[in-house]
Amino acid sequence: MSHFRALTGVVRGSSLWIRSGHAAARRHVFDPRRGSSSESAEPSLAACTSSYVEEMYYAWLEDNKNVHESWDAYFRNAQAGSPAGEVESRRPSTLLQGRAMTQTPAMAQKVVEDHLAVHTLIRAYQIRGHHVARLDPLGILEADLDSFVPSDLITTIDKLGFYGLEESDLDKKFQLPATTFIGGNESTLPLHEIIRRLESSYCGHIGVEFMFINSVEQCQWIRQKIETPGIMRFTPREKRTLLARLVRSTRFEDFLARKWSSEKRFGLEGCEVLIPALKMIIDKSSEAGVDSIIMGMPHRGRLNVLANVVRKDLDQIFCQFDPKLEAADEGSGDVKYHLGMYHERINRETDKNITLSLMANPSHLEAVDPVVQGKTKAEQFYRGDTKGKKVMSILMHGDAAFAGQGVVYETFHLSELPSYTTHGTIHVVVNNQIGFTTDPRMARSSPYPTDVARVVNAPIFHVNADDPEAVMYVCRVAAEWRNTFNKDVVIDLVCYRRFGHNEMDEPMFTQPLMYKQIRKQEYVLKKYSDRLIAEGVVTLQEFEEEIAKYDKICEEAYTSSKDEKILHIRHWLDSPWPGFFTAEGEPKSMSCPPTGLDEGTLRHIGAIASSVPVEDFAIHPGVSRILRGRADMIRKRSVDWALGEYMAFGSLLRDGIHVRLSGQDVERGTFSHRHHVLHDQEVDKRFCVPMNHLWENQAPYTVCNSSLSEYGVLGFELGFAMASPNALVCWEAQFGDFHNTAQCIIDQFICSGQAKWVRNNGIVLLLPHGMEGMGPEHSSARPERFLQMSKDDPDRYPGFTGDFEVQQLYDCNWIVVNCSTPANYFHVLRRQILLPFRKPLIILTPKSLLRHPDARSSFDEMTTGTKFQRVLPDNGPASQNPEQVKRVIFCTGKVYYELAKERKQQNLESEVAIIRLEQISPFPFDLVKAEVVKYGNTELVWCQEEHKNMGYYDYVRPRFLTVLDNERPIWYVGRDPAAAPATGNKFTHLAELKRFTDAAFNLKSFEGVRF
């Protein structure tokens, strides 16, 4: 009886009640004597009037002609869900009509088992059908790297035995479960037709992975889209549109190959269907209301996407092939297949405006993934698009990179997080089935390159890229999925690479079998055009005219491109900032106003920072003490590091500047100093962000703890900062050295983004730094790495006119500071927004100074008229009598407080001046020179707590010599060179500190090293 229930259900009231394996142990069983249901722990046929009802039902399931027509009507009514009373009233008076009397128990058992087998078979195809789908256009490799056919899929007649079925069962009809749509309007089908439809749905040119999704609704949605008979149909108009798009995709590559046969272009040959695929996604998304799409992709096919999807002017693309072309804009520019583009146009399929952005991307193929997501999130945020219905992202990938690069997982991992979700991304994998020269069997351990997407329950559609209509249908479904569920989806275009890694490469060296087949492979355009001509959708003349029309467009653009003498890189911007720059792309001014505030504003922000602006909110006693401490500081007109940051953020919010702070544990702060999010100690999930209660019409403040990712999250914040210049976007590392796992983003985007892509970006990196005796980990933020990549010339004293500070900042590629006072931290954050341009800002933030009693600033250093101090001169007795000073020590950061303490202990405050470089890069030549001149021929020392081969020494040394015209010596004092950033022994740390601080003040037996 349990088999009977599992297969067919039981009549409950008037409906067939299908049971699943998750049903409760107690079942409702129909009692024909009462026409109602009762409960039974172990229901059996004894509850029925006669066992013949069961036998008759079995017989009816096998063939409705096995029973009398009255019983046929009865069972049909029950299955259709008619009311219980109506069904029971129509139950035949005799139980012995029809052919059920001939049904033996053994025969009944066979019917049960056969129905169970068919239901299991259907599920097997849904789960594993993709393993036998015909996905490889070349017919060589299996897309899942395994030629094994799952034993539970019917691929030959002999496989029927796996389910206990026989060849004679192929013509029998079976009841279809509610979890399939292969029947269309039919509820029963012969077994051979069931298998045929399953193979058509799951084993053709489309393979679908979705049964791992833990949502019944979503699985049913996909099943309907894949299984419904005849659903994958296209009108003649749609087919002609597809053909026209294939013509453009193919002929563009042909044109480049003819004109520049010896140039690398990373063409799309072998996956020409990508262009119509992207256009289908855009069309369906536009139809659903999306009007802005941000895209990211590697280099393969980028020029084709720029030309035929984003619609960049062809002459601008072609002119880049001219080796004599001069760059009009500042910077090196980048190769044509790395550049991006922004374009607003009409979508001709929907007659709606659409904005397309293709982000610039270096050769680090997947590095752009989180950047695209961050920019998409920013556009959604600024437009109030909380569900992603207006702005969306499309990411294109290569198969080897998608499987091999960890940032892919880091990006997927952000997709459902509240502060990072973009409400669904459509991923398109151009699956070349090879990575440069590496066979996929040597490049990944997973069956498919797309398996990483399963971690977020994203459905994966594998499709043979040589079947354009199958690709178009998958793209249509993917766009509808994203619009319906706002979740990620993956399209795996299984294709090939016709000419190797690039057009100059010889792939036969390493993949001879594959490329012998590729040489014989007919172009997809030829195959599809022949098909449409045979169907009568287009004529040969119409097809040839379409080719001629596009070839003429390319030739005219080629002729026009020869008139281009100068390449304007700015035309390749992927996200312009309207109104921020002049029409020529220059800043509207070259000055920066003072960054101080009136005292009333400081006190107002301080009052909110030291209170809880929500009633009946229970805060932690420790947090309460911190708030009381802040209130006490406000009364004394002083601020610590956390309060200085609070005032900088709060004042920008008042001016309409959105502030976003992201990173691991930033809400509280790694060192428990910030507490920008207060949590109610009595009510779960109740929290308060006081910063959002500062002003009536303030900009929003976003502070969000991130996942434990640096590469992905920093890339995301970089993309967020790209969207608007009117936002302060900060990423804080838990410890400064953690930025090393995001080094790709720093090297490829932040350091060189303006030079390569003319992309201004004002992102701020907060990197806790300082030698505290805590070991080599979490000590150094590696300032030497940032300084080495700073582009200011060490051997030339800048000859700027006008505002030296602003001109120097405009000329640099990024700014590196190591603030030693809360006031300077406050000012540098505000300066970041008040500057008339945007540069990345690297701040080496403190750890022990967060609570150091001497690391406090007065309101007087932050009020109206004050500004960021690039150099903090000595303000003690030494400064008042410079002629009596015997030594000047230059330093930066935390070591100042250790030097000041030692100077006081040795009673040398009148003889030794200590000067702090707060801005290290660009180097403050003018202010350093003024200090050197002030103290005459006094002995000069550079002191740092970092080891000699780290920190700032190699950067400041040549610049000091330039200031001194190489005529005076300056001595180095600090730790000796080492391999690790710091010792792991506390005693050794203190001994090193004592040694170099002694050396800094030992005027008689100096142990320093001359520069």
TrEMBL record:
Its EC number is 1.2.4.2. Its cofactor is Mg(2+); thiamine diphosphate. One of its GO terms (molecular function) is metal ion binding. CDD domains: TPP_E1_OGDC_like. GO terms for biological process: glycolytic process; tricarboxylic acid cycle. InterPro entries: 2-oxogl_dehyd_N, 2oxoglutarate_DH_E1, DH_E1, KGD_C_sf, ODO-1/KGD_C, THDP-binding, Transketolase-like_Pyr-bd. Signal peptide: none annotated. Residues 639-852 form the Transketolase-like pyrimidine-binding domain. GO terms for cellular component: mitochondrial matrix; oxoglutarate dehydrogenase complex. It is found in: Mitochondrion matrix. 2-oxoglutarate dehydrogenase (E1-like) component of the 2-oxoglutarate dehydrogenase multienzyme complex (OGDHC) which mediates the decarboxylation of alpha-ketoglutarate in the tricarboxylic acid cycle. The OGDHC complex catalyzes the overall conversion of 2-oxoglutarate to succinyl-CoA and CO(2) while reducing NAD(+) to NADH. The OGDHC complex is mainly active in the mitochondrion. Involved in the inhibition of cell proliferation and in apoptosis. NCBIfam families: 2oxo_dh_E1, PRK09404.1, PRK12270.1. This is 2-oxoglutarate dehydrogenase-like, mitochondrial. It comes from Chanos chanos.
